[in-house]
Amino acid sequence: MRNGNDQTKSSGASTNEGQLASKPLHPAWSAFVRYCTELQHGEIELLKIQDGLPVLAEVIKKKVRFAS
Question: I want to staple 58 with a disulfide (CB 3.0 to 4.6 A). Which of 14, 15, 31, 46 is the partner?
Answer without folding.
Answer: 46
